[in-house]
Specification:
- By secondary structure, this protein is mostly helical.
- The chain has one domain (about 15-110): Orthogonal Bundle (Arc Repressor Mutant, subunit A), CATH 1.10.10.
- Helix content is about 45%, strand content about 10%.
- The strands form two sheets. A two-stranded antiparallel ribbon has the order 1-2. The chain has a two-stranded antiparallel ribbon with strand order 3-4.
- Helix 1 packs across helix 2 and helix 2 (about 40-45) packs across helix 3.
- The longest helix has 29 residues, at about 85-110.
- The protein is elongated.
- The two termini are about 40 Å apart.
Length: about 140
């Protein structure tokens, strides 16, 4: 059976205690650029409109300018990335690619020592971590 190893590098850019940009927010920006609507982007991602709006609001508050511009109204309603939003998204994606390439360089050395699956947890009455025998050694 072929052995698979996975490397996940999650980059979050912080603004105080808020996550200004991360993988989910970048995916939301991609979806808004594609669908030109926050609600359509939310549907495509399987998240609520409220959740998508809160993520957009956080991003718009964390950068020097908004990343998403909205146009209210019934017939002309929509959303689009601002030039700053497109700039931030492009640089974030580039940073992700660089981190993935850098991380994969050491992946083989680590995965050669990695089990295919974790061992089952030890029984509660097994030896104590200090080697004293625990409940089973009494």
């Amino acid at each position: 059976m072929a052995r698979q190893s996975f490397l996940r590098i999650k980059i979050q850019i912080m603004c105080g205690a808020e996550i200004a940009m991360g993988p989910g927010k970048a995916d939301l920006l991609d979806a808004i650029a594609l669908h030109r609507s926050i609600s359509a982007a939310a549907r495509a991602m399987g998240i609520s409109y409220r959740r998508a709006w809160l993520l957009v609001d956080t991003m718009n508050r964390c950068w020097w300018g908004p990343l998403v511009a909205t146009t209210p109204g019934n017939q002309k309603a929509g959303a689009q990335l601002t030039p700053l939003g497109a700039h931030v998204l492009a640089h974030y994606r580039r940073l992700q690619d660089e981190a993935d390439r850098a991380g994969s360089a050491g992946l083989a050395a680590l995965t050669s020592q990695l089990r295919p699956a974790p061992h089952p947890p030890q029984r509660q009455d097994g030896p104590a971590p200090d080697g004293s025998g625990g409940a089973a050694g009494r």
